[in-house]
Specification:
The protein is an alpha+beta fold. It has four helices and seven strands; from the N terminus they run ααβββββαββα. It has a five-stranded antiparallel β-sheet, sandwiched between helices. Strands 6-7 form a two-stranded parallel sheet. The longest helix has 42 residues.
Length: 209
Amino acid sequence: AWLVLCLAICFGATLAGMQLALGPTIEQNKINETMAKVPELVLGSELAAKLAAENQTLEIAPRNVTVEVGGQRQSYSVFDAKYQGNRKGWVVKTGGQGYADKIELLVGLDPTLTTITGIFILEQKETPGLGNKIIFPEWRGQFIGKPTSPALKVVKTGAQGDSEIDAITGATISSRAVTTIVNTAIKALREPLTTGDGATSGGPTSEDA
């Protein structure tokens, strides 16, 4: 029993040490991945690829937006994407509880926060072969072009309406978790990003990019 306890303590300390050592690197990798994904989430894969092929880039300005939700202050990392001075959209980094663990994702939104332009899963530990299908482009693609109002809802019988998302078979909880995370972020940020400087409009077009 003492041997097992000692081994458990040693392994636990080792894992904690590795987490502390690798934590900054992991976070930096997430930031790099986020910046690389912003053009695709705002413009779409085709326009983003065209922009890259022409050696042009979006102007991406990160900012922190703090809002009050349910009496608690919530901070979001938001990326303001512009092309030649015109806002093309926003990308929001957000997260929440999934079926197995926390899910972190990016949500792409048009300049007026009326349409979802894409989502990308940064981190997840959902069930392999079931819940982890949230990372698949085929499922994530459902969100592209969806209106932000009314709130999105998950259905099991096949999405029909504009506000419906088709659940992954056998992983309804994971599907709902992602959808709830997206809905929550949009609701919290709608006012802060669409007032003042955030009110600038102008969606992505093939002529601009």
